[in-house]
Design goal:
Largest sheet: none
Strand content: under 5%
Structural class: mainly alpha
CATH architecture of one domain: Up-down Bundle
Radius of gyration: 23 Å
Number of helices: 17
Shape: globular
Order of helices and strands: HHHHHHHHHHHHHHHHH
CATH topology of one domain: Cytochrome C Oxidase, Chain A
Length: 548
């Protein structure tokens, strides 16, 4: 007999609070993105004195930081409560404290951006300078996320004490890995904001070391990509097998891949700084090698997923090399929407290898190719998977159901998104190879000799961006329907089970002393000597200025 397991209402409220903020950020950030591509086409001028880079900052911060962080924390709170049991009062209190501190910080940063006092782009590189309230708001967002993460870790520790000698639930383990990755990575951005940018913007110091600031940012900036990606992997590994009616290929393989992501995603920030002086070529080479190590868990994930699909298809009578493909539930948005995200990750991953390669990076560095890659990874693979999660998670948390009408509309939305992104991202990749700069508006390079060659690609970006905005309208309509108007009922929180033929999960995979020690060693090897060299041989620091 099928049993329905519902998350405790108090934990569901906590998770939904995060998700509401995330989708509000999607609405505002998506509008800013539409304005951005229209301006870049050269056929549109922003009204009311709004600046292009102001819109660009809104788009990057709201979608790259606010949407992702709030949605991920909401999903992980729900996942841990579902698989490890209802939160204790202390864990829930930490979750709410984290939420409110993050929300206050988000409002502080957003107000400064809207007032044009923090037009410093998503990366807020020095020597661009923002108002001190913007930096303090970012600090609140990071600290709030630590508080929410502490609530998750407290629940995990409690479960381990109650179940000695047993591996924790797979979804809980994955959420904790991602939380640890986030906490370790954000030490870098917290360091540069608290000890460099905030005192500098307050006038307490006159200058800032730009190289140190950028290095601390990218110590955080690259693992940020995996903080976005791992929740999508959670759905691919654990949720999708249950949705299609199959089994998880291997619990051990899934855990090992997440551990490898934790180990090899943090000490690799230099591959974003390959053209910067001040960093010895040896350390860049080392971190490029470590970057390519991430290919291993990525291929492990692909193998595990397609093994799951084939096992399911064979159980349904599929024959031949790809017979299983026809047996997959293409009419179920819970599967189809994330699957489109999985497919998008194939070219996205290939582009990542190009970006990380010292030689090929020279061709595409600081061109709009990088933006196109970014939109394939985060804005397609990750975001479409998040939408696929929301289509069952939101009704589960609100006590409603995913109706047939909303299921069909969700599949349409994913197709619209895939078409729009293919046009926009494809144009970005193509014109990037022609040398079109990243982040620039049409007006800033209109006099360049090759600018006329770029115009058709810029128009294509505007067309693709407009289609994407239609996709945003559709997903917001579906979200509002599922949260407030869909019929009351019971929507499953699907959690897959390991295949009977899989090997038993070794407890060594959950020995945190081993993995955290290796992680600390890798970070020290990759960063200690370069940081000492930066400080000892620092050039004269730069005074700041504001971008208008």
């Amino acid at each position: 007999m099928k049993t329905f397991v519902r998350i405790d209402k108090r934990d569901a409220t906590l998770a939904m609070a995060h998700i509401y903020v995330g989708f509000a950020a999607l609405a505002l950030g998506g509008l800013a993105g539409l304005l951005q591509v229209l301006v870049r086409s050269g056929r549109f001028t922003l009204p009311a004195g709004i600046g292009y880079y102001q819109v660009l900052t809104v788009h990057g911060v709201l979608l790259g930081l606010v949407l992702t962080t709030f949605f991920i924390l909401g999903f992980q709170h729900a996942a841990i409560s579902r698989t490890s049991g209802t939160y204790s009062g202390k864990s829930r209190l930490m979750g709410w404290l984290g939420f409110w501190v993050m929300l206050i910080g988000t409002i502080m940063a957003a107000v400064m951006i809207l007032l044009n006092e923090a037009t410093v782009l998503y990366t807020f590189y020095a020597p661009l300078q923002a108002h001190w309230i913007f930096y303090l708001g970012l600090t609140f967002v990071v600290v709030g996320s630590w508080l929410g993460g502490a609530g998750m870790i407290m629940k995990y520790v409690s479960w381990r004490k109650e179940h000695p000698g047993q591996p924790s639930p797979l979804l809980t383990f994955m959420a904790i890995i991602n939380t640890v990755l986030w906490i370790v990575a954000t030490i870098g951005v917290a360091g540069t904001v608290l000890f460099q940018l905030l005192p500098w913007s307050l006038g307490l110091v006159d200058r800032v070391d730009v190289l140190v600031s950028r290095t601390l940012f990218w110590y955080f900036g690259h693992p940020l990509v995996y903080f976005w990606l791992l929740p999508a992997y959670m759905a691919w590994y654990v949720i999708i097998p249950k949705v299609i009616g199959g089994k998880i290929f291997s619990d051990s393989l899934a855990r090992l891949s997440f551990i490898l992501f934790l180990l090899f995603s943090i000490p690799v920030g230099f591959h974003h700084q390959l053209v910067e002086p001040g960093i010895d070529a040896y350390w860049k080479f080392l971190q490029v090698i470590l970057t390519f190590m991430v290919v291993i868990p990525s291929l492990m994930t692909a193998f595990s997923l397609f093994a799951t699909f084939e096992m399911y298809g064979r159980s349904k009578g599929a024959t031949g090399l790809f017979g299983w493909f026809k047996k997959l539930p293409w009419g179920d948005a819970r599967f189809t929407v994330p699957f489109i995200g999985m497919v998008a990750f194939i070219p996205a991953g290939a582009g990542g290898l190009i970006n990380a390669s010292n030689q090929m990076n020279q061709v595409v560095h600081n061109t709009i190719w990088v933006t196109g890659h970014f939109h394939l990874t985060l804005a397609t693979s990750v975001v479409l998977t998040f939408f696929g999660i929301a289509y069952w998670l939101v009704p589960h948390l609100t006590g409603r159901v995913l109706t047939k009408a909303m299921n069909k509309l969700a599949i349409v939305q994913a197709i619209v998104w895939a078409v729009g992104m293919s046009i926009m991202s494809g144009a970005m990749h193509a014109v990037g190879l022609l040398g079109a700069p990243r982040r620039s508006s049409y007006s800033t390079y209109g006099d360049a000799p090759q600018a006329l060659d770029w115009i058709p690609y810029q128009i294509a970006q505007a067309v693709g961006g407009t289609i994407l905005f239609i996709g945003i309208i559709l997903v917001l309509y579906i979200f509002i329907n599922l949260a407030f108007f869909s019929p009351k009922g019971e929507e499953e929180f699907p959690v897959g089970e390991q295949a009977e033929t899989a090997e038993r999960t070794p407890m060594a995979l959950e020995n945190w002393k081993i993995w955290l020690t290796i992680l600390a060693a890798l970070i020290l090897v990759a960063y200690s000597a370069p940081f000492i060299d930066m400080i000892q041989n620092a050039p004269p620091a730069s005074k700041g200025y504001r971008m208008w």
